[in-house]
Design goal:
Helices cover 15% and strands 29% of the residues. It is built from 4 helices and 39 strands. It has 2 domains: 2-100, MurE/MurF, N-terminal domain (Udp-n-acetylmuramoylalanyl-d-glutamate--2,6- Diaminopimelate Ligase, Chain: A, domain 1, 3-Layer(aba) Sandwich); 115-316, Hexapeptide repeat proteins (UDP N-Acetylglucosamine Acyltransferase, domain 1), CATH 2.160.10.10. The longest helix has 26 residues, at 318-343. It has a 12-stranded mixed β-sheet, with helices on one face. It has a 10-stranded parallel β-sheet with strand order 9-11-14-17-20-25-28-31-34-37, with no helix packed on it.
């Protein structure tokens, strides 16, 4: 990939990423991108996390984007300082991969099935082979529907969306603009609702919808259930990782980050900028405040205030959880001491 990319000088790189050249010749030419441990003398890498400092000190990269304040590095390696090295490196990646980026080419593959009542401009959308667009669906300009994806009856999809292969969007669900749905995701499947009557589990109809606001991204094989009534809503700018389960009537605020294998139970609500690390969970009918952060495998079983980091199960403030863990590590020695005292 890197050998086909358009080269950058160090000074051009600094301008693109809004960084400062700390060390190196402005005319030095960068030909590609790679990780710290794989980069060669003509490639660019970045230091975005202190845990990779040893890789940084041993790197053979030609140039590295580093945090502000870092002025020393491996001999012969050019350094460009940026406020956010990871974000800056992402900008460089876009430059070097531009030739391979997705190119939107409008058109409807003849092997797609589009109901006559669906509303779309065939000259301004792209529909791939095997895709099904059902009755009454509306698809905005610039939107791409991938192979074998299913857009259900009366679904509304905004402009410049990308629905990847094998996605299912069930009836009446609504997607805003610039929404990305990764392969295999299911939007609007039935919520898990049953009542036990005379010894049998009787299904409760789920007649609501799912609404994804602008700039939402949904990861591969993630499922977002339709509401029992009303709507399951995902706020603008929220990013959801692969293999996440979001149950019926959940209300996620804007700009949440929901990481892989997390689960959010029915009717839970989150504020803005909430973060759930991998395998974290929120219980049913629980409300989470703005900017709350949940560590991996933590679980919120009650309403939680915003602006704090939580861990453990049941979730509690991170420092409290760490103190409890530290105390538990001392427990075996404490038990031994008690036994010795009991023996006299």
């Amino acid at each position: 990939m890197s050998r086909e990319a358009v080269a950058l000088t160090l000074s051009e790189l600094a301008r693109q990423v809004d960084g400062d050249i700390v060390r190196g010749e402005p005319s030095f030419v960068i030909e590609g991108i790679a990780s710290l441990d794989e980069a060669t003398a003509t490639e660019l890498s970045f230091l975005g996390n202190e845990r990779y400092r040893q890789q940084f000190l041993k790197t053979r990269a030609g140039a590295v984007i580093v945090p502000k304040g870092v002025e020393d590095g491996p001999e012969g390696v050019a350094l460009v300082a940026a406020e956010n090295p990871s974000y800056a490196f992402g900008a460089a990646v876009k430059h070097f991969t531009a030739a391979h980026a997705r190119q939107f080419e409008p058109g409807v593959d003849p092997r797609a099935v589009i109901h006559e009542t669906a509303k779309l401009n065939r000259d301004k959308v792209r529909i791939h082979a095997g895709a099904v667009v059902m009755a009454g669906a509306v698809i905005g300009d610039g939107t791409e529907i991938g192979p074998n994806a299913v857009v259900g009856e009366q679904v509304k999809i905004g402009v410049d969306c990308h629905v990847h292969a094998l996605v299912s969007i069930r009836e009446r669900c609504v997607l805003g603009d610039r929404v990305i749905i990764q392969p295999g995701a299911v939007i609007g499947s039935d919520g898990f609702g049953y009542e036990t009557v005379n010894g049998s589990h009787v299904k409760i109809d789920q007649i609501g919808i799912v609404v994804l606001d602008d700039d939402v991204e949904v990861g591969a094989n993630t499922t977002i259930d339709r509401a029992r009534f009303g709507r399951t809503a995902i706020g603008a700018g929220t990013k959801i990782d692969n293999l996440v389960q979001i149950a019926h009537n959940v209300q996620l605020g804007p700009h949440n980050l929901i990481v892989s294998q997390s689960g959010i139970a029915g009717s839970a609500k989150t504020g803005k900028y909430v973060v759930l690390a991998a395998q974290a969970g929120i219980g049913g009918h629980v409300t989470i405040g703005d900017q709350a952060v949940f560590a991996g495998r933590s679980g919120a079983t009650a309403d939680m205030e915003g602006g704090q980091t939580y861990g453990g199960y049941p979730a509690q403030p991170h420092m409290d959880e760490q103190r409890q863990k530290a105390a538990l590590r001392k427990l075996p020695d404490l038990i031994k001491r008690v036994k010795r005292l009991e023996k006299g």
